[in-house]
Amino acid sequence: MYCRALKTILPGLLFLACYSSAQAQELGDHRYTSEAIQAGLRIYTQECALCHGPQGDLVDGVNLRLGQFRNVQSDDDLRAVVSGGAAEGRMPAFDFDAEELAAVIAYIRAGFDPEGVAVRVGDASRGKTLFEGKGNCTDCHRVGGVGPRTAPDLSDIGLRRTPANLQLNLVDPQAALLPINRPVRLVTINEEVITGRRLNEDTYSVQLIDSNGQLRSLQKADLASYAISELPSKSPAPFDADEVADVVAYLLTLRGVQ
Ligand code: HEC
Ligand code: HEC
Fold first, then answer.
1. Statement: the pTM of the whole predicted model exceeds 0.70
2. Within the chain, which residue ranges are assigned CATH 1.10.760.10?
3. pLDDT digits (tens, 9 = 90+) for 103-160
4. 3 CB contacts (<8 Å, ≥6 apart)?
5. Which of 28, 64, 92, 121 is buried most, with the most CB atoms less than 10 Å from its CB?
6. Which atom of ligand 2 has the smallest separation from the CA of 237?
7. Where are the beta strands (DSSP E) in the chain?
């Protein structure tokens, strides 16, 4: 916070100092600590398991372990439900301090796994604005039938990836890159140069989306060269930890045709 407040006054001067401390805190800022997850296990067992069950699935329409809720989306929503109660008192309001709240949320977000990773989930509507604006995500990605095809279609990404995987994609795309999605550059024996993103490959052929968004299938026998890039096709998203949490929340709402 200190750092962010100063940045708005002296953007250029303080950039380096803030950047290095942001780097050092990268994981801490984006995730709950494992101490919090373990404290959350204790609180959950004492205060919540009676109604929600040890697996979090005893209340109709709610599965806490899998992150399936009726109304809750963000971590702030979770805090509000736990502090305020729900369903006209069928769930009581809990008088927890900030640390206890963070702990029980961490345990839920870690999927009830004390060894797990608990990614912070922010506000989906702010995330949508960032996705379409500052993040330039729609320059490459398609959602709900709108946008280019050069990068993976994200229309149902919320069903296919975990919060931890989505967060990694934003913070460190190199580490998140699936081997099959690698950028490729092919030259055919007719000297056509094709760049794109590999979708599939077997012994004799390779399928890709080329840079014009066309699906292509090529026989390896027709290729003069075939290079697979080890570099990801994009840089980390230009977001701070809160913005990453918001965009993760938005991506989790993308669940295909509703
Ligand atoms: C006395 C029973 C009871 C206890 C104890 C209880 N809950 Fe609930 N909880 C409920 C019921 C019932 C609902 C369903 C509310 C509804 O139908 O919308 C619920 C709903 C929820 C929801 C889902 C809200 C949504 O949008 O779907 C969350 C999250 C939740 N509880 C978390 C907790 C946590 C964390 C604790 C422990 C700190 C806890 N609950 C303790 C009964 C309980
Ligand atoms: C320059 C183009 C480009 C931009 C801009 C871009 N991406 Fe990507 N993204 C890709 C490509 C290409 C891949 C496939 C993996 C790779 O090659 O790195 C990908 C992969 C992903 C994946 C993983 C898909 C899967 O199936 O697992 C997610 C999630 C994602 N991007 C989200 C975003 C978000 C959110 C933004 C905006 C902050 C964004 N991307 C901006 C090109 C882009």
1. yes
2. 33-119, 124-176+235-252
3. 999 999 999 999 888 999 999 999 999 999 999 999 999 999 999 887 889 999 998 8
4. 14, 17, 18, 21, 22
5. 121
6. 38
7. 31-32, 118-119, 183-188, 193-201, 205-210, 215-219, 223-228
Give CA 249 to chain center in angstroms. Answer: 7
152 vs 232: CA distance, rounded Å = 13
* Residue appearing with tokens 């989790």: 252
Contact predicate 168/229, CB 8 Å: no
Q: Could you tell me the strand order of the sheet in which 205-210 lies? A: 215-219, 205-210, 193-201, 183-188, 223-228
Among protein residues, the one with the nearest Cα to ligand 1's atom 11 is 91
How many Cα atoms within 13 Å fall on the side-chain side of residue 15? 3
Listed residue (146, 105, 116, 139) closest to 245, CA to CA? 105
Q: Where in the chain is the domain with CATH 2.30.30.100?
A: 179-228
Report the distance separating Cα 156 and Cα 144, nearest Å: 9
Q: What is the CA radius of gyration of the chain?
A: 22
Q: 179-228, what's its fold?
A: SH3 type barrels. (2.30.30)
Q: Is 199 in the pocket of ligand 2 (CB under 6 A)?
A: no
What is the CB neighbour count within 10 angstroms for residue 114?
Answer: 13
CATH class of this structure's domain 33-119: mainly alpha
Tell which one of 47, 91, 95 to mutate to probe ligand 1, the residue whose CB is within 8 A of the most ligand atoms. 91
Does the structural domain 124-176+235-252 have CATH classification 1.10.760.10? yes
pLDDT digits (tens, 9 = 90+) for 78-91: 999 999 999 898 99
